[in-house]
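Q: Could you fold this chain for me?
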Amino acid sequence: MYKITLYIPFFLAVCLVLSIKGKAQDIEYLQFDKYTTEHFVQEKGLSQNSIFSIYQDEIGFMWFGTWDGLNRYDGYSFVSFSAFADEGKPSLGKNESINDMAEDKNNNLWIATNSGLIMFERKTQQYYLYANTPKRKFFSSNNLNCLVFDLEDNLWIGTDNGINRFNPYNYKNTIFKADFANPDAISSNIINDIKLDENGNLWIATNFGLNYYVQDENRFEKYFSSNGLSSDSVYCIDLFANNKIWLGTNKGLDYFDYAKKQLQPFSYQGQYSLQNIEITAIKQDRKANLWIGTAENGLYLYSSKEKSLVHYEHKRGNQRSISSNAVSEIFEDRTGDIWIGTNVGLNRVNYQRTKFRHYNTNFGLGNSFLSDNMVWAIQEVEEGKFWLGTNSGIDVVDLNAKEIYPMNTANSFLISNNIRHFYKDSKNNIWIGTYDKGIIKYNLDNKSLTFINTNTNPEISSNTVWGVLEDSKGMIWIATDDGLNLYDEEKNKMYFFFHDPMLPGSLPGNKIMSVYEDRQKVLWIATFSGMARYDRNNNVFVSYQHSPNNQNTISNDRVFSFYEDSRGDFWIATMGGGLNKFNRKLGKFTRYAENTGIANNVVYNIKEDSDGFLWLTTNFGLSKLNT
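A: Sure. Below is the predicted structure, expressed as structure tokens.
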């Protein structure tokens, strides 16, 4: 049985991820040594920068509500649903504040706005608006602040004029309003937050106290500053195990143990204090650490294990600091990453995945960063020192010296900055494949250089080089954009192989992506017209290509790479056809695609770890395959 684990990156600058061990540091401005932060603003696709609500649906999409529109994030890009306003559909937030979201049992998304309630029906992809009009009244107000589904599928909606219990199936609505003459009524009409606890009970934050809805008795139990609250203005609620509740007020953070009926302000004996600070967002994560957002004092992180409180603030010019000190929303997604909404953009903290450290043009070692986010190739040239091939040359990452420095056409031996491939042979040569200038062979011992391109002797068939392999006979195979090249270094002679439709046994295509030699010393060639096995004895290629009517053929003819695992299974990565396992004896392929659990059908490369798991690089992150 195969089990696939997805590692979907929401850190979407195309960056290199190296698995290293980092030491945690308490650094201000969210400059975590072992965490990564990323900012999202309008220039990256958001409809507006003020984030009011964050939600992750059942499928895994992230949804972000702003002052001007709703945004869906698929891990690559944002879709702003205000774009539908011109099609005669509900605008989903054009010029509207998206204040909260919830999903029903049919995976329909319900959206609270300042102009009514919008339902996105997943099955039909249609949008429906529920709002008060002169002809029909749905709610106590169209200005909806928050919502949550209860265990009976009723939608509770908090507004600026009371709370509503709305049945989304028959549209029946019950309105609850404050009534000082009625001791069982809700304490205020201004509803700031609603949460459902583990027992199905409703907790309601209002501008005048905390309310608990006693469903069996249809009454509201109320708590005020006279009961221990820091303030009667309660802004936000976060529930965790055993009826314990965190409450954010306009004068600090409170802790409520409902089972013990203990309500008290959060007290911390240390450098920072939360007293008299306006708390606008709170979230206790799966590690029992508490994230605390404020109206103008930035972000706090309380470690319940270490009993420590760390304060993070925005710092102008520091791209690793939180984007603003005005925090409106905090959300933990299913991967454990923390999303922080502010008034000037969205922040994501790669908080859980501490085994991965990111390097790009913003995050690096010390004050040194990558020169380009597009990383095509990685090569360890010595222990702790890596070459990264990019569109701007080679970046040298020296983990020992804790620095990154560039090599390019202006300051090194490089004749092209468009690096596509590295290969280290048995003679300690690094073969550098470029997109436009052929190959550079660099010897790590004596620093000698050899250039091979379409203008040298010997020449190669194309200056676009995708791969290099030294086979068991010491011959060098070169995968290019126009044919396969075989280089005999001793004779300094180049041999060429091309596709010829009139010649049986020729290559299936001329765009060669990689060459691989298995344990039986059989050579395999990946092309964009299928894959081929090289028959050395007869000097011919046996092609394997996709047939739409045969499920036993390869899933897609655009092949990137091969891998033979420790069990002897042979795997093929394709562009658009996912992953294939090839039975070399029977000539049959088994297909693995998105519908079987891999992250994406574009699979670039395959590697096996020490535990026997296969790791796949895809267009939508990493997949780990338990074979």
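A (continued): The first strand starts at residue 3 and ends at 7.
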